[in-house]
Every structure is written in C-alpha cells, then in structure tokens.
Amino acid sequence: MAEHEGKNEVSQNKEDTQNVSIAKEIWEWVYTLAIAVIIAFLIKGFIFDIVRVDGSSMFPTLVDNDRLIVTKLGYEPHQGDIIILDSQYKNREKYFDSLAESEDKDELSFIGKFIASRSMPANLKKKYYVKRIIAMPGQTVDLVDGKVYVDGTPIDEPYYEGTTSSIDPTVEYPVTVDEDNVFVMGDNRNHSKDSRSSELGQVPYDAILGKSQVRIWPLTEIGRTK
C-alpha cells in the first residue's frame, strides 16, 4: 500500500513539474511577444515609419501608391527636404484650445488631449500629406512670372519644369515664414494643396512626421527620394 502511494506521489510530482515547465514556456512566449510589440511601437512612433503616397501632388518625383521609409528620430527640417506632415495639426490644436478655454484652462495636458481625441470630429484626425520644403523660418517666399523666389533669388528646381502660380487669392506675396514653421509645396504645382493655400498654410515643426528617405515600392523604383 505504501509502495503504491509512493508511485502516485512520484507521478504527481512529475506531472506538476511538467505543468510548471509548460506555464513557464507560455510565459516566456507572452513576455517575448510583448517586448517585440513594444519595440515595434517605439520604432514606428519615434525612429522610422513606412508610409504610402496617396495622390499625385508630388508627381513626377513620387506617384500614387509609392511606399516610403520616413525617418523621425533627430530629424531637423532643411530646405529641399521631402517631408510627411499632418495636414490637420493646426485645426486640431485650435480644437484643443477651445476645449481648454471652455474648461477655464490655459491649455489641455497631454492626457487631456489624448482623451479629447477619442471623441473629436473625424475631420480633425491625422491626415498626412507629402510635400517639399521650399523655405525655412525667417525666409521670404515670392511668386514672380511663374518662378519661386526665396529671399529675392529664384530657387533651382530640377524636379519641376512648369510654372508656379498662386492658388488662393487670400494668400498675399511675398510671404515671410514664421518661426518654427516651414513653407511647403508639392512638385506637381497645378495639383497640390500646399502652403500657397490658406487651408494648409505654413506648416509648424510639430506637424512634421519626418523626412522621406527611401522609396521601397515599387521594386523597380527603389532608391533615395530627393
């Protein structure tokens, strides 16, 4: 009887050890996947992202459905860069300011903005544009005889052969770029909603997602974007 009970005890201990081993293995898988998800989130949020071009505003430099690698970490805007920007950033900030005012606050906190974003109008959600930086803070942009002038000098634009004209009568030239803003245009000047329009206007640094570095799709067009 004692021998039988001893065998049962050994069998039970072996089964318990196996269960612990399985549970440990499951935990290790869950832990590894969680770390992988967090790393992927951090990379996408802060280091680089992959975006798809939607539309023809950057033709012929970029075309519809091109896939681009966009770098974020440590990016500082420079004239001539192709950037990805959030076209609704300024409108969204105005919305947050109105909420803060209604609550008698100077501004909403990061958490307050996050909570407010869950119920804000759909037209204020992030909508990304691909554009080229034409002028930096403090520089003056003018349009003369179909040419783009920055600080009184026509800029060299090997990516565009046509003429550039005003698209919004409410925007008067010359325009001086505000501090911490950039003036952007699409390479397809006749089919681009950009800083020439009061709807977008000058683009704040905080609205810039990052710089387009490389086109990775289609495979026949892989290479740096410039």
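the 2nd protein, sequnce then structure:
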Amino acid sequence: MAHNHSHEGHNHGHHHHHNANDLKGWKIGVSILLNMLITVGQVIGASISGSIALMTDALHNFSDVISLIISYIANRLTLKEATTSKTYGYKRAEILAAFVNSATLIGVAIFLIVEAIERFSSPISIQADIVIWFAIGSIIINFLSVVLLHNDSKDNMNIRSAYLHLLTDVMTSIAVMFGGLAMKYYNVFWIDGLLTLLIAIYLIYSSFSILKESTKVLMQFTPDGINLEDISIEVCRIEGINNIHHLHVWQLNDNKYMLEAHLEMENDIKLSEFQDKLNIVEEVISKFGIDHTNIQPELNKCDSGVGLIVGS
C-alpha cells in the first residue's frame, strides 16, 4: 500500500517534469537557429578576411550547433516512456550526448592548435574590419542564447554542456573582436594565431570536465559525495541487521541515484517483519539522496561476519 502511494507521488512529479522539458526544447530550438546563423556568417567572414581566429570561432559555434542538436534530441528522448526492452527509458541519452559532444570538441581543438602553429611560421595579412564586425554579431547572438538557457543549465548536465559552449563562445568572440582591433590599428597579424591557440586550449579545458563527469556516469562509478562506508555503518546500526554487502551505488542520469545490496539478517524473521525493516533501511538510505533501492535479504550466508564487502 505504502509502495503504491509513493509511486503516485512519483508520477505526479513526472508530469511536472514534462512541461519543464517542453520549455527547454523550445529554448534549445531557438538557440540552434541563432547559432547556425553565426556559424554560416563567420565561415563567410573568415574566408573573405583570411582570419584563422574567426574560423576557429566559427568552428566553436558549429560545435555548438551540433551540441545543441544532440541536446535537443536527447531532451526529447528522455521524455519517452520506458518499455520492456528499454526498462530505464532513454534517461541516459543526455549523458551520452554530453560525452560525445565533449569528446568531439577536444578533437576539433587539437586540429586548430596545429593550424595556429603553422600560421605562426607564416603570418598573413588579414582584413581586420570584417573580423571585428563578424565577432560583434557573434557576441550579440550568442549572448541571447546564453540568457535563454541560463536557468535550465543549473540542474541538467546536458543543458549545462550546451550552455557552457555558448558562454565560451561569447568569450571567444570578444577575444576575436579585440584581435581584430589590434590588427586594424597596430598591424599585429600574429595575434590571430595566438587567439586561435588560446581559444583551442580553452575548448579542451572546458570540455574535459564534462567528458570526465559523463564518463563516470556511463561507467557506473560511485557518484561523488556518496560514501559506501558511511551507508554501510548507518544501515548496520539498525537493530536485527548483521551486515550489508554486495553494495553498489550508481547514477542513472543527472539526478537519479540507484543502490543495490544484500542485507544479512540476524534472525530468521517473517516476510512481514522484513518489510518493516526494509522501510527503515530505505529511510536511512534516502538521507544519502538515493531514491531507488534494490535489496536482497540473506541469512547465514558463508561470507557473513565481514563488514563491508563492496562489489561482488
């Protein structure tokens, strides 16, 4: 009975989530269009002006378009209900998107670093005016997208990766604009290569943390901030429980933590009594922010007497 009640509550929350997701979808859609506009513009601008920094910025923007499209698709997929063949639904689509996205960006950045280094050995003169105006256009349009996605980026890894891209775009476009001004007034054309180098290094730096974060989730590592020893100690304090072992905690997506474990009981108790114990155990575990548990009862198993046996 209690179980049913909690399920209703869960469903109720789920509907609320739908609206939030639809809203995000609309915002991502607008950002995609804006970024496509910038990318095309900057590629044209870079081709005319001969600026590799503007081309880097265009590429950065193009990676945004890709990332936003992935985010958009992932966002739609997470709305799909679970089926018998996909019991968790598509909850991990967003994590996968963040992973693919950050990995590609790192590749792109390395390619640009090589290009920039080649430029240093043979700097060419660049039409600075074009660089300046295209950079300003990019700053304005990107800023609009940043404002759009700001709120949703706080609690969603996927939207956050897209948001970070846009934010770095504003920064890089500002840098490219200053580079254009330096070239226009001081004729220092090497600054173009230097900017490319800096933007590319920044791209690698910002993508790496998302790559690491998403890898952790995909590899089902124990989430940060969750200590299995602490959980074990708390659970073993409960009367009638000998120990807890085969303990695993992992993350399904951004905000859903799962736990599975074997509970060894002191006495051969009735199923109804175990149910009461289980309610207490789940209450303790929920304090750690874990909302889904799968617990198997045991009695006098051969590996008893040992405290925390992590894994199987």
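The mean pLDDT is 83. The beta strands are 241-251, 257-265, 292-299, 309-310.
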